[in-house]
Design brief:
Blueprint: E1 4-8, H1 13-24, E2 28-33, E3 48-51, H2 57-64, E4 71-74, H3 81-86, H4 88-108, E5 113-117, H5 142-161, E6 164-169, E7 172-174, H6 192-200, E8 207-210, E9 222-223, E10 225-227, H7 228-240, E11 247-250, E12 257-258, H8 259-270, E13 276-279, E14 288-289, H9 294-300, H10 309-322
Parallel strand pairs: 1-2, 1-4, 2-3, 4-5, 5-6, 6-11, 7-10, 8-13, 9-14
Antiparallel strand pairs: 9-12
Helix pairs in contact: 1-7, 2-4, 4-5, 6-8, 6-10, 8-10
Keywords: Carbohydrate metabolism, Isomerase, NAD
Family: Belongs to the NAD(P)-dependent epimerase/dehydratase family.
Enzyme class: isomerase
Protein backbone atom coordinates (compact mmCIF):
# COMPACT_ATOMS: atom_id res chain seq x y z
CA UNK A 1 0.00 0.00 0.00
CA UNK A 2 1.44 3.42 -0.92
CA UNK A 3 2.32 5.65 2.00
CA UNK A 4 0.36 8.88 2.37
CA UNK A 5 1.92 12.23 3.20
CA UNK A 6 0.79 15.80 3.78
CA UNK A 7 3.21 18.53 2.69
CA UNK A 8 2.53 22.07 3.92
CA UNK A 9 4.16 24.66 1.69
CA UNK A 10 4.46 22.03 -1.01
CA UNK A 11 3.96 24.66 -3.73
CA UNK A 12 7.12 26.47 -2.64
CA UNK A 13 10.72 25.99 -3.71
CA UNK A 14 11.99 23.24 -1.40
CA UNK A 15 8.57 21.77 -0.68
CA UNK A 16 7.78 21.20 -4.36
CA UNK A 17 11.02 19.27 -4.83
CA UNK A 18 10.18 17.09 -1.83
CA UNK A 19 6.77 16.39 -3.37
CA UNK A 20 8.52 15.37 -6.61
CA UNK A 21 10.72 12.94 -4.68
CA UNK A 22 7.71 11.40 -2.89
CA UNK A 23 5.80 10.99 -6.15
CA UNK A 24 8.82 9.35 -7.76
CA UNK A 25 8.69 6.70 -5.01
CA UNK A 26 5.01 6.02 -5.69
CA UNK A 27 3.72 7.67 -2.52
CA UNK A 28 0.37 9.45 -2.21
CA UNK A 29 0.90 13.16 -1.56
CA UNK A 30 -1.39 16.06 -0.71
CA UNK A 31 -0.07 19.63 -0.80
CA UNK A 32 -1.52 22.17 1.64
CA UNK A 33 -0.55 25.71 0.57
CA UNK A 34 -2.09 29.18 0.61
CA UNK A 35 -0.14 30.18 -2.54
CA UNK A 36 0.98 33.44 -0.93
CA UNK A 37 4.54 32.72 -2.03
CA UNK A 38 4.08 29.31 -3.65
CA UNK A 39 2.81 28.53 -7.14
CA UNK A 40 0.07 26.18 -8.29
CA UNK A 41 2.27 25.28 -11.25
CA UNK A 42 4.91 23.94 -8.86
CA UNK A 43 2.57 21.14 -7.74
CA UNK A 44 3.31 18.27 -10.07
CA UNK A 45 0.54 16.14 -11.60
CA UNK A 46 -0.22 13.22 -9.34
CA UNK A 47 -0.24 15.21 -6.11
CA UNK A 48 -3.44 16.34 -4.46
CA UNK A 49 -3.79 20.03 -3.70
CA UNK A 50 -5.69 22.00 -1.07
CA UNK A 51 -5.46 25.79 -1.15
CA UNK A 52 -5.82 26.83 2.47
CA UNK A 53 -3.99 28.67 5.22
CA UNK A 54 -2.48 27.19 8.35
CA UNK A 55 -4.11 30.02 10.29
CA UNK A 56 -7.42 28.27 9.53
CA UNK A 57 -7.66 25.62 12.26
CA UNK A 58 -10.82 24.21 10.68
CA UNK A 59 -9.06 23.61 7.36
CA UNK A 60 -6.21 21.80 9.11
CA UNK A 61 -8.60 19.59 11.07
CA UNK A 62 -10.63 18.78 7.97
CA UNK A 63 -7.45 17.85 6.12
CA UNK A 64 -6.03 15.60 8.83
CA UNK A 65 -9.39 13.99 9.53
CA UNK A 66 -9.52 12.73 5.96
CA UNK A 67 -7.82 9.39 6.55
CA UNK A 68 -4.49 7.91 7.63
CA UNK A 69 -1.32 10.00 7.31
CA UNK A 70 2.10 8.37 7.51
CA UNK A 71 3.80 11.73 8.16
CA UNK A 72 3.45 15.48 7.80
CA UNK A 73 6.24 17.51 6.18
CA UNK A 74 6.13 21.15 7.26
CA UNK A 75 7.71 23.74 4.92
CA UNK A 76 5.14 26.54 5.03
CA UNK A 77 6.58 29.68 6.62
CA UNK A 78 7.69 33.23 6.08
CA UNK A 79 11.40 32.93 5.38
CA UNK A 80 13.10 36.29 4.76
CA UNK A 81 15.52 37.15 7.56
CA UNK A 82 15.58 40.86 6.66
CA UNK A 83 11.80 41.11 6.66
CA UNK A 84 11.68 39.42 10.05
CA UNK A 85 13.94 42.15 11.47
CA UNK A 86 11.45 44.77 10.24
CA UNK A 87 8.33 42.85 11.29
CA UNK A 88 9.41 40.66 14.21
CA UNK A 89 6.01 40.13 15.81
CA UNK A 90 4.45 39.25 12.46
CA UNK A 91 7.10 36.57 11.84
CA UNK A 92 6.88 35.14 15.35
CA UNK A 93 3.08 35.02 15.28
CA UNK A 94 2.82 33.62 11.76
CA UNK A 95 5.57 31.00 11.79
CA UNK A 96 5.32 29.91 15.40
CA UNK A 97 1.55 30.23 15.72
CA UNK A 98 0.79 28.35 12.51
CA UNK A 99 3.39 25.69 13.25
CA UNK A 100 2.05 25.11 16.77
CA UNK A 101 -1.48 24.87 15.39
CA UNK A 102 -0.33 22.22 12.93
CA UNK A 103 1.61 20.23 15.54
CA UNK A 104 -1.38 20.26 17.89
CA UNK A 105 -3.67 19.06 15.11
CA UNK A 106 -1.27 16.23 14.26
CA UNK A 107 -1.34 15.08 17.88
CA UNK A 108 -5.15 15.18 18.04
CA UNK A 109 -5.55 13.28 14.75
CA UNK A 110 -3.07 10.53 15.57
CA UNK A 111 -0.23 11.51 13.23
CA UNK A 112 2.94 9.92 14.60
CA UNK A 113 5.65 11.34 12.30
CA UNK A 114 6.53 15.00 11.63
CA UNK A 115 9.38 16.44 9.52
CA UNK A 116 10.26 20.10 10.04
CA UNK A 117 12.13 22.23 7.54
CA UNK A 118 14.05 24.35 10.05
CA UNK A 119 17.01 26.67 9.53
CA UNK A 120 20.68 27.04 10.35
CA UNK A 121 19.81 30.67 11.16
CA UNK A 122 19.30 29.30 14.68
CA UNK A 123 23.00 29.82 15.29
CA UNK A 124 23.27 33.58 14.72
CA UNK A 125 26.97 34.45 14.65
CA UNK A 126 28.52 31.00 15.15
CA UNK A 127 31.62 30.46 17.24
CA UNK A 128 33.03 27.85 14.85
CA UNK A 129 32.69 26.85 11.22
CA UNK A 130 31.31 24.52 9.97
CA UNK A 131 28.33 24.54 12.33
CA UNK A 132 27.39 21.18 13.80
CA UNK A 133 24.41 20.17 15.93
CA UNK A 134 26.28 20.87 19.18
CA UNK A 135 26.75 24.57 18.37
CA UNK A 136 25.18 27.10 20.73
CA UNK A 137 21.64 28.11 19.75
CA UNK A 138 21.41 31.91 19.51
CA UNK A 139 19.00 32.96 16.75
CA UNK A 140 20.12 36.16 15.12
CA UNK A 141 16.65 37.07 13.83
CA UNK A 142 12.96 36.64 14.63
CA UNK A 143 12.84 34.24 11.69
CA UNK A 144 15.42 32.00 13.34
CA UNK A 145 13.65 32.37 16.69
CA UNK A 146 10.34 31.27 15.18
CA UNK A 147 11.91 28.04 13.95
CA UNK A 148 13.58 27.43 17.32
CA UNK A 149 10.19 27.76 19.01
CA UNK A 150 8.85 25.00 16.77
CA UNK A 151 11.83 22.78 17.49
CA UNK A 152 11.15 23.15 21.21
CA UNK A 153 7.46 22.43 20.69
CA UNK A 154 8.31 19.23 18.83
CA UNK A 155 10.56 18.13 21.68
CA UNK A 156 7.61 18.35 24.08
CA UNK A 157 5.22 16.82 21.57
CA UNK A 158 7.50 13.78 21.48
CA UNK A 159 8.03 13.54 25.25
CA UNK A 160 4.37 13.88 26.14
CA UNK A 161 2.46 12.60 23.10
CA UNK A 162 4.95 10.38 21.26
CA UNK A 163 5.00 12.51 18.07
CA UNK A 164 8.37 11.65 16.59
CA UNK A 165 10.03 14.40 14.59
CA UNK A 166 12.92 14.96 12.22
CA UNK A 167 14.32 18.49 12.26
CA UNK A 168 16.49 19.61 9.34
CA UNK A 169 18.53 22.82 9.59
CA UNK A 170 20.11 24.36 6.51
CA UNK A 171 21.02 27.69 4.95
CA UNK A 172 20.71 28.31 1.20
CA UNK A 173 18.70 25.93 -0.93
CA UNK A 174 19.84 26.34 -4.54
CA UNK A 175 19.65 24.85 -8.01
CA UNK A 176 16.60 23.32 -9.66
CA UNK A 177 15.03 19.99 -10.51
CA UNK A 178 17.46 18.19 -12.86
CA UNK A 179 14.55 17.27 -15.14
CA UNK A 180 13.65 20.93 -15.56
CA UNK A 181 10.14 20.66 -14.10
CA UNK A 182 10.70 22.83 -11.01
CA UNK A 183 12.87 25.75 -9.95
CA UNK A 184 13.09 29.02 -8.02
CA UNK A 185 10.37 31.59 -8.52
CA UNK A 186 10.49 34.06 -5.64
CA UNK A 187 8.82 37.45 -5.98
CA UNK A 188 10.90 39.40 -5.41
CA UNK A 189 13.89 37.13 -5.90
CA UNK A 190 16.35 37.36 -2.99
CA UNK A 191 18.64 34.36 -3.47
CA UNK A 192 22.12 35.02 -4.79
CA UNK A 193 22.49 32.36 -7.50
CA UNK A 194 19.33 33.26 -9.49
CA UNK A 195 20.12 36.96 -9.09
CA UNK A 196 23.62 36.47 -10.51
CA UNK A 197 22.24 34.34 -13.35
CA UNK A 198 19.76 37.09 -14.21
CA UNK A 199 22.59 39.63 -14.28
CA UNK A 200 24.55 37.38 -16.66
CA UNK A 201 21.49 36.99 -18.89
CA UNK A 202 20.90 40.74 -18.99
CA UNK A 203 17.65 40.57 -17.04
CA UNK A 204 18.97 42.88 -14.34
CA UNK A 205 21.61 45.60 -14.68
CA UNK A 206 24.16 44.29 -12.17
CA UNK A 207 24.77 42.29 -9.02
CA UNK A 208 25.72 44.17 -5.86
CA UNK A 209 28.51 42.69 -3.74
CA UNK A 210 28.03 43.86 -0.17
CA UNK A 211 31.42 43.99 1.50
CA UNK A 212 34.85 43.09 0.15
CA UNK A 213 36.87 43.37 3.36
CA UNK A 214 35.69 40.34 5.34
CA UNK A 215 38.18 37.93 6.89
CA UNK A 216 37.77 35.43 4.05
CA UNK A 217 40.15 34.41 1.25
CA UNK A 218 38.72 36.92 -1.26
CA UNK A 219 37.17 39.38 1.19
CA UNK A 220 33.53 38.56 0.38
CA UNK A 221 31.02 36.66 2.50
CA UNK A 222 31.03 32.87 2.41
CA UNK A 223 27.71 31.06 2.42
CA UNK A 224 26.51 27.47 2.20
CA UNK A 225 24.71 26.33 -0.96
CA UNK A 226 23.02 22.96 -1.13
CA UNK A 227 21.09 21.61 -4.08
CA UNK A 228 17.36 21.47 -3.54
CA UNK A 229 17.14 17.89 -4.79
CA UNK A 230 19.76 16.85 -2.24
CA UNK A 231 17.67 18.55 0.44
CA UNK A 232 14.64 16.52 -0.65
CA UNK A 233 16.71 13.33 -0.38
CA UNK A 234 17.79 14.32 3.14
CA UNK A 235 14.17 14.82 4.23
CA UNK A 236 13.27 11.31 3.07
CA UNK A 237 16.26 9.73 4.76
CA UNK A 238 15.52 11.58 7.99
CA UNK A 239 11.93 10.33 7.87
CA UNK A 240 13.18 6.76 7.70
CA UNK A 241 15.26 7.32 10.86
CA UNK A 242 12.18 8.04 12.95
CA UNK A 243 11.63 4.35 13.71
CA UNK A 244 14.50 4.77 16.16
CA UNK A 245 13.26 8.06 17.67
CA UNK A 246 13.32 11.77 16.91
CA UNK A 247 16.38 13.22 15.15
CA UNK A 248 17.93 16.61 14.45
CA UNK A 249 20.33 17.17 11.58
CA UNK A 250 22.32 20.11 10.23
CA UNK A 251 22.69 20.07 6.46
CA UNK A 252 25.45 21.78 4.53
CA UNK A 253 28.41 21.52 2.22
CA UNK A 254 30.93 21.88 5.10
CA UNK A 255 32.98 24.38 3.07
CA UNK A 256 30.75 27.01 1.44
CA UNK A 257 31.44 29.48 -1.36
CA UNK A 258 32.11 33.20 -1.38
CA UNK A 259 30.01 35.75 -3.28
CA UNK A 260 32.79 36.18 -5.83
CA UNK A 261 33.08 32.41 -6.26
CA UNK A 262 29.38 32.25 -7.08
CA UNK A 263 29.79 35.03 -9.62
CA UNK A 264 32.76 33.27 -11.27
CA UNK A 265 30.80 29.99 -11.38
CA UNK A 266 27.91 31.68 -13.16
CA UNK A 267 30.33 33.25 -15.64
CA UNK A 268 31.87 29.82 -16.34
CA UNK A 269 28.54 28.09 -16.81
CA UNK A 270 26.86 30.83 -18.89
CA UNK A 271 29.96 31.90 -20.80
CA UNK A 272 28.93 35.50 -20.13
CA UNK A 273 30.36 38.26 -17.92
CA UNK A 274 28.44 39.31 -14.83
CA UNK A 275 28.23 43.07 -14.23
CA UNK A 276 29.20 43.75 -10.61
CA UNK A 277 28.82 46.76 -8.31
CA UNK A 278 30.95 46.78 -5.16
CA UNK A 279 29.15 48.12 -2.10
CA UNK A 280 29.70 48.43 1.62
CA UNK A 281 28.85 45.77 4.15
CA UNK A 282 25.25 45.19 5.17
CA UNK A 283 24.66 45.43 8.92
CA UNK A 284 24.62 42.04 10.63
CA UNK A 285 26.16 39.97 7.82
CA UNK A 286 28.60 37.39 9.31
CA UNK A 287 31.76 36.66 7.34
CA UNK A 288 30.95 32.97 6.95
CA UNK A 289 27.95 30.72 7.52
CA UNK A 290 28.52 27.07 6.69
CA UNK A 291 26.80 24.02 8.15
CA UNK A 292 28.26 20.58 8.81
CA UNK A 293 26.46 17.43 7.78
CA UNK A 294 28.63 14.69 9.29
CA UNK A 295 25.86 13.38 11.54
CA UNK A 296 23.25 12.82 8.83
CA UNK A 297 25.90 11.34 6.54
CA UNK A 298 26.98 8.93 9.27
CA UNK A 299 23.50 7.93 10.39
CA UNK A 300 21.63 7.80 7.07
CA UNK A 301 24.31 7.53 4.38
CA UNK A 302 23.19 10.85 2.87
CA UNK A 303 25.60 11.95 0.14
CA UNK A 304 24.78 15.05 -1.94
CA UNK A 305 24.58 14.32 -5.65
CA UNK A 306 25.38 17.94 -6.56
CA UNK A 307 28.58 18.72 -4.69
CA UNK A 308 30.17 21.05 -7.23
CA UNK A 309 29.01 24.66 -7.37
CA UNK A 310 29.04 24.64 -11.19
CA UNK A 311 26.65 21.67 -11.20
CA UNK A 312 24.23 23.53 -8.92
CA UNK A 313 24.43 26.64 -11.10
CA UNK A 314 23.92 24.61 -14.27
CA UNK A 315 20.54 23.27 -13.10
CA UNK A 316 19.47 26.74 -11.97
CA UNK A 317 20.47 28.23 -15.32
CA UNK A 318 18.54 25.61 -17.25
CA UNK A 319 15.38 26.46 -15.29
CA UNK A 320 15.73 30.24 -15.65
CA UNK A 321 16.42 30.05 -19.36
CA UNK A 322 13.39 27.82 -19.94
CA UNK A 323 11.15 29.79 -17.55
CA UNK A 324 12.09 33.47 -17.80
CA UNK A 325 8.88 34.41 -15.99
CA UNK A 326 8.93 31.49 -13.56
CA UNK A 327 5.71 29.51 -13.30
CA UNK A 328 3.88 32.28 -15.14
CA UNK A 329 5.64 31.27 -18.38
Amino acid sequence: MPRRFLVTGGAGFVGSHLVAALLARGDDVVVFDNLRTGHRGAVLPGAGFVQADLADAGAIDAMLAGGRWDAVFHFASLSLVGDSMREPMHYLAENSGNGLRLIDACIRHGVTRFVLSSTAALFGHPERIPIDEAARIDPGSPYGESKWMLERALLWADRIHGLRSAVLRYFNAAGADPDGRLGEDHRPETHLIPLVIDAALGRRPEIAVFGTDYDTPDGTCIRDYIHVTDLADAHLLALDRLDGGSVTYNLGSSHGHSVLEVIRAVERVTGRPVPVRLAGRRPGDPAALVAASARIARETGWTPRFQELDAIVRTALRWREAHPHGYAT
